[in-house]
Amino acid sequence: MKFSEQWLREWVSPALATQALADQITMAGLEVDAIEPVAADFEGVVVAEVVAKAPHPDADKLNVCRVEDGSGERLPVVCGAPNVAEGQKVAFARVGAVLPGDFKIKKAKLRGVESRGMICSASELGLEEETSAGILVLPADAPVGEDFRAFMGLDDHTIEVDLTPNRGDCLSVKGLAREVGVLNRLPIEGPAIAPVAPVHNEAFPVRVEDTTGCPRYLGRLIKGVDVTAETPLWMVECLRRGGIRAIDPVVDVTNYVMLELGQPLHAFDQANLHGAVVVRQAREGERLVLLDGQEITLSDTTLVIADERGPLAIAGVMGGEHSGVGLETRDIFLEAAHFSPLAVAGQARAYGLHTDASHRFERGVDPALAREAAERATALLLEITGGAPGPLVEVVDVDHLPAERKVQLRAARLEQALGKALPVEDVGEILARLGLVVDAIAEGWATRIPSWRFDLAIEEDLIEEVARIHGYNRLPVRRPMARLGLRPDHEARTPLARLRREMVARGYFEAVTYSFVAPELQQALLPEAVSPVLANPISSDLSVMRASLFPGLVRALTHNLNRQQGRVRLFETGLVFRGELDALHQTPMLGALVCGSREPEGWASDRQTVDFFDLKGDLESLLALGGDRDAWRFEPAEHPALHPGQCARVLHRGEEAGWIGTLHPAVRARLGLKVDAILFEVRLDALTLGSVPSFAPLSRYPEVRRDLAFLVDEALPVQTLLDTLHAQAGEWLTDSRLFDVYQGQGVPEGRKSVALGLTWQHPSRTLNDDEINQLVDAIVEEAHQHLGAELRT
């Protein structure tokens, strides 16, 4: 929030310089982001009066004015502004003045006419960023000859405060004044706000159908306003210094009161209201054109202000175009309401909006503030635009207003938390200055929380308040004492960092993608996946929690391919989310994706592209890190995102742990990819769970090797043949290795030749041929009976 230092000091003015005041606010938990002067440096500009105006004799668009600047001399000034007029009070730069940009005013002749000074526009004085169309016209009571900077109060600063979401009570000058007053033990002196007596008895009917979302709604009909009236310069300046542009007097007053008190207001053109004003939930399919010209379709979860014909505004967010105040408006209906934060939260973002009103209502607005703000706005409107006010109509449901909160603070708990015993009187005074109603009790203090402090609900909240008002820098500094025992580490567990290093060593880059993905992408890869849908997504293409690492990796692949990176090797670790919110499973996974050439481009490397077995080899290197390679198996299976002929389910100790395969051609075409991509993802808990290595004595006796070539069915997995072999090979088998797979001449159609190398070694003696031959015969017999395998000779 931005606010003017001078405006704040009208409420409370501690004897602190600007920087000291900002530091104090920051130390109280309201971080000051920036301090900027409200106007650029200039000098020699005074308030003057245009006492005469005549056309320039030699220029159609210039006028020759006589200006009284308080010096007793009427100075000739040539001015080209279209809005200059006799009798105006203006900002006048005398000869010798220096304007922003080091622009010096000198005597000059324009088309033969002497000009001794310059009548300035707002942009020339650095008060507006855009070039002004005309001169800056000052109020009629501006004193001629007074220094313009002093008259406008331009020796001021705009202070920008970055508030945390729980401190919505400080989103106003009044709220910040409360904080500064508490910190400096000073009373705050705001404007006197008295009820405005109605001039007529006409009241516009109001009906609140959703009292949960809007427990308090006030409205007042003000007839005969002059919308063409000019907003006072002092109010325009307050708005400018608060970061808001002046529009028209009605809108300016509502914005001013919002900055001053923190209560958003809205004014409707009474001529465009039909029947009663109704606060209700939108009906599915209703449409609304907003003040910014955007047309939206409302959802049935949106709280709206409507009349008998349809929606007029999104409650607490933005009004509609057709019911807003315009130049033809004569009667207005002024609205001041309390909307529940839950009713407004997320509504602005759902429609791509963010307004000052929604920013405040989402964080919580004082439910007791609406009447005060309505009376303040009414008084200002009558002063500026005139008009006849009617009675203030209020619809309130006390049961749905925030209930009064009572919180106890124990003296012993406060001392324990702060490490310091504070005098009882000081604590009571701090709580009272914060606006709490305090009663002393035996244990400490019983308090009632003021309506504007939504963030105070438990004892710890009060401890924090006492600490920050007392001063964090005044609390004792103590080193924490704790027993720090060593955490046990499972010897069989493979650290995640080691898995990462292995992937990097094999040429992969680690990717970090969003946990949110586009629903269309997830649907293409995982059509049956169920994962939570975000109510308020960052964007439409990040609206679903990922059920797999595949969508993020594929999106990263597309990003790289679009930037002419043909060889992509990525891996990622992170959570995947499966199931609805009430039964959500969050599983840590490790995934990888490769495409392009097998080796980096170079004179000594070939141009072969990666295939399924390249990625499978990389995955097997990870599996081997755990020292329990035999616990892992690959079996053919089908996955909706993977090629049915190049896909395998990864099993760990008989349970599914992941998938590996080539991206399905149909999915690839749907995603617009022109290259093959091979992916895998495996559960991290299975990857990191290994076995503790143990020493086995080395045998001094020779190894015996036999090579066997089997003719088997081409669809038979080699692993099945290996399982049969291991079951019959005996306890002295030390190694089995697949070294050849062949199909072609000499091998019947539908069959393949699988060649295996088997190695035996006894720990304490030399194995003889008879023993080995018996084991080989058993292997051949078992493979023939159960797998239909034939020994190839």
TrEMBL record:
Alphabetic keyword roster: Aminoacyl-tRNA synthetase, ATP-binding, Cytoplasm, Ligase, Magnesium, Metal-binding, Nucleotide-binding, Protein biosynthesis, RNA-binding, tRNA-binding
Amino-acid positions noted as binding Mg(2+) in the UniProt annotation, renumbered to this chain: 455, 461, 464-465
Domain TRNA-binding: 39-149
The keyword RNA-binding belongs to this UniProt entry's keyword annotation: yes
Biological processes, Gene Ontology terms: phenylalanyl-tRNA aminoacylation
GO CC list: phenylalanine-tRNA ligase complex
GO MF: ATP binding; magnesium ion binding; phenylalanine-tRNA ligase activity; tRNA binding
Cofactor(s) required for function per UniProt: Mg(2+)
EC category: ligase
Cited CDD domains: PheRS_beta_core, tRNA_bind_bactPheRS
UniProt domain FDX-ACB: residue ranges: 699-792
PANTHER family to which the protein is assigned, alphabetical: PHENYLALANINE--TRNA LIGASE BETA SUBUNIT, PHENYLALANYL-TRNA SYNTHETASE BETA CHAIN AND LEUCINE-RICH REPEAT-CONTAINING PROTEIN 47
Pfam families noted in UniProt: B3_4 (PF03483), B5 (PF03484), FDX-ACB (PF03147), tRNA_bind (PF01588), tRNA_synthFbeta (PF17759)
Species of the source: Halomonas cerina
Name of the molecule in the record: Phenylalanine--tRNA ligase beta subunit
Subunit composition and interactions: Tetramer of two alpha and two beta subunits.
Gene: pheT
Family indicated by similarity: Belongs to the phenylalanyl-tRNA synthetase beta subunit family. Type 1 subfamily.
SMART domains recorded: B3_4 (SM00873), B5 (SM00874), FDX-ACB (SM00896)
Residue stretches making up the B5 domain: 402-477
Annotated EC: 6.1.1.20
InterPro entries: aa-tRNA-synth_II/BPL/LPL, B3/B4_tRNA-bd, DNA-bd_dom_put_sf, Fdx_antiC-bd, Fdx_antiC-bd_sf, NA-bd_OB-fold, Phe-tRNA-ligase_IIc_bsu, Phe-tRNA-ligase_IIc_bsu_bact
Textual note on the cofactor: Binds 2 magnesium ions per tetramer.
